[in-house]
Specification:
The protein is mainly beta and about 160 residues long. The protein is built from one helix and seven strands. A hairpin with a 4-residue loop joins strand 6 and strand 7.
């Protein structure tokens, strides 16, 4: 009797696995098409990008396609690990910059609109990931749950 249940649950698992991945073209769908490096929060005025604080990072387009835009998600904390804002500390920012295949581009995200108090020390970053990439060929790559997140506290 036990063997029948094992076979039954094995068949159910195999069926669910097959249905889950049957629509995928290849395992390339699961590859992370970007690399984020040197993420940090900088304080003070930075040209036309921010007056008080901004999230700076480098973005490498590892895919074979040109990017039209992407949406970056990350969380900010103060030096004690607390939410520094009145609202949510989860930032979602659409970056409408084009990035050619194989290119590395430096980006700055203005954080001034989230501030209620001018920070005296840089915020810590955590759980940084791109949740969506739109390519010039109109295709799209998505990671809505941050499976490819950068999990490091940056200063």
């Amino acid at each position: 009797m036990k063997k029948k249940w094992e076979l039954f649950f094995g068949a159910v698992f195999l069926s669910i696995f097959s249905f889950t991945f049957s629509g995928c073209e290849s395992m390339d769908t699961f590859a992370c098409p970007y690399i984020i490096s040197n993420p940090r929060v900088e304080l003070g005025e930075c040209e036309k990008n921010h007056k008080f604080a901004g999230m700076h990072f480098s973005f490498f387009n590892e895919s074979k396609k040109d990017i039209e835009n992407f949406t970056l998600c990350f969380m900010l904390y103060d030096s004690d690990g607390n939410n520094p804002f009145i609202g949510s500390n989860c930032i979602v920012s659409r970056c409408d910059w084009k990035v050619r295949s194989g290119a590395v581009v430096d980006f700055i995200i203005d954080l001034d609109s989230y501030l209620t108090v001018v920070p005296t020390e840089p915020y810590q970053l955590d759980y940084i990931f791109v949740c969506e990439i739109n390519y010039s060929d109109k295709s799209c790559w998505k990671d809505p749950y941050g499976m490819y997140c950068v999990r490091e506290a940056c200063e």
